[in-house]
Each structure stands twice: as structure tokens, then as C-alpha cells.
């Protein structure tokens, strides 16, 4: 995974992007549940200000979740998980303050379920271990709060029973999210390993196919330029000075063509030929494109294909500049836009999300007249 974190979003960026609607729904569901339960148990509220603060903290946690899961901010960072956990714990504490001395039942307290739903929604974005630890941390806060509130409970059972009832929703939902994250990541990595074996097994066959294709290209060039020339020489029976000059031009042309094709990088090949998805300029004097990993190349190639198929940009004027700086490669991709900023973002959102995950430091400036992407990578 090229040093990246083992998360579902990292191993399957498009899958995480498709989970965004569920993430938004989870944040809304947690807020609606908290609002309904607060209204239902409003007679237990001792401090309306603290109760309102608890709702605000929950809303803030939901906002952190939704914004951090946005494809324009991918990948979901650890600091966002920490912020969500702290805000969730704050909601638990403030809710307890709001019902201090009047909370009669644990079962109708909304924080454990609402917070658990937010932690469950982290499954596509963070490692299972982190989600489980966040759940344990919030569950500990819930347990302490329940112990403090236990004198006001009307049910005559041991305090440990109240604690178990209160922490179960948090732990169950958090551990469910952690299990999904870990299992999904492992399955995708296993699939990728099998695919790598299959790719290696077919590499020799692919090499032979490419060699035959290159040979055919050379034969085509010879048939187009060289064969007619020699045919004319045979037909005339003499070699004139003009024929010598023509032979020199043909040789120079063939030599320059072959050298250019031999020196062309995989990135330059994407800009060349009739079937190229885009056209434009690749500025890579130090030949840094081959230093990209397979993941980098796949993401860039997918973006260029998307640019070629999009009517929001002018794919005939794409420029890619690669420069070395402090042992890393700085890249800038720019293309003129044919639509507004919003349309460009919407049309290219999936590919930009993948690039953010693959490169990690991608910066996007979609402001007309150019869509500009800046990124960097280590030389491999």
C-alpha cells in the first residue's frame, strides 16, 4: 500500500466515495434520535443550557464526520477521528449535566446510541483498531457518567447493571464498525494479492504481444517510406544526387522517430497517438514519470481518460510538469476548463478523491480558466 494506512478508503477509494450518502444519513439519524429522545424525556431536564450544549456537541461531531468524509478532503484523517470522539464524549457529559438529579432511567438516554451511530459511520474511513479504541474511550466516559448519576435511577438493581446497559450501544456499534473496516480491508488486500499473481503470470504473454505490435509498427513505417523509395530506385536503374538526399532524409526521419519512441515515458505515450485520451504537453526533462508507483500511474491514467471524456474541460490542451525537489517529485497538471467551478468539481469528484488518497497531498484549484492539480511523490 505504499506506506499508506490500512483503511477501506485507502484500499478502495471509490467504494468509500459511494458510502458518503450513508455517512450523511448516519449523522442525521443520530441528531434526529437525540432530538426525539430529548423531547420525549424533557421532564427530566434540569439544565436546559447543558442539554442544548449536548445537542450542539453532537451536531459538531456529525459535521466533523460529514466534512471529513467529503471526497474533496480525502483521506479521512486521524485528527478528525479524535475530534469526533472528543465532541461525542462532550455530548455525553453535557447531557448528564442537563439531567443531573432527574435522570430516572438509563434506557432512555440518547448519547450512547447517537454516539454509537457516529462511530459506526467511521467504518469506511478509519482502521478497525482506531474505531474500537474510540468506542472504548467514549464507553469509559459513559460508564463514569452512569456511576455518578446512579443515585437518581429508580430501578433497584446494582450499578454495574446500569453501566452495562449504557455502554452496550456504544461498544456494539463501534465494534461493528471496527469489524467491518478490518474485514473489508483484509479482503480487498487479499484480492489485490491474487490479482498481482495473475498479472505476473500474464506479463510474459503481454510482453510478446507488445513486441509483435512494435514490430508491426516498424514494418508499417518501412512499407510507407522505405519500400517505395527502393522501388523507384530499382525502376530507374540509376542513383542520382536527389536520391541520395532523399535517402538521407528518410534515414534521419526513421532514426528520430525510433529514438523518440524509445525515450517516450508511459505518461508521454498517453498523450501520443490517435487513440490518446488527451493531448497537450508533458514537461519531464529528468524523466521522473517512471518513478511513479503502479498506484500513482493508475490514478493519473484514470484521470486523463476522465478528462478526455468530460465536456467540462478542454482535453486537447493538457499540461503536466514534473520537477525534482529535495528528493521528491513535484507535479502540476493543468487543463483549461469549459464550465464553471461547481460543474468541474462534480464531474471529476470520483477521480479527484482517488488522487487525494493515492498522493496524500493533492491540492486542487478548479478556478477558471484552469483546473490545476498539484501533487508530489517519492522516487521509487
Structural overview:
65% of the residues lie in helices and 9% in strands. Helix 12 runs antiparallel to helix 13 (341-359). The chain has helices at 8-11, 13-18, 20-40, 48-68, 78-98, 111-120, 128-149, 159-201, 203-236, 241-263, 266-271, 294-309, 341-359; strands at residues 280-283, 318-325, 328-336, 363-365, 370-378. The chain has 13 helices and 5 strands. A 5-stranded mixed β-sheet has the order 1-2-3-5-4. With 380 residues, the chain is of the alpha+beta class. The protein has 3 domains: 8-198, no CATH class; 204-263; 269-378, Heat Shock Protein 90 (2-Layer Sandwich).
Key traits:
380 residues, Heat Shock Protein 90, 13 helices, 5 strands, single chain, alpha+beta
List the SSEs and their pairings.
Layout: H1 8-11, H2 13-18, H3 20-40, H4 48-68, H5 78-98, H6 111-120, H7 128-149, H8 159-201, H9 203-236, H10 241-263, H11 266-271, E1 280-283, H12 294-309, E2 318-325, E3 328-336, H13 341-359, E4 363-365, E5 370-378
Parallel strand pairs: 1-2
Antiparallel strand pairs: 2-3, 3-5, 4-5
Q: Give a count of the beta strands, DSSP E runs of length 2 or more.
A: 5
- Output the strand order for the largest sheet: 1-2-3-5-4
The helix/strand series, from N terminus to C terminus, equals HHHHHHHHHHHEHEEHEE
Tell me the count of domains.
3
Number of separate helices: 13
Low-confidence stretches: none
Major beta sheet summary: 5 strands, mixed
Share in β-strands: 5-15%
Which overall shape is indicated by the principal axes computed on the Cα atoms?
A: elongated
Task: Round the Cα radius of gyration to an integer and report it.
Answer: 31 Å
Strand-pairing-aware structural class: alpha+beta
The average pLDDT value, as a whole number, equals 84
Helix content: 55-70%
Distance between the termini: 13 Å
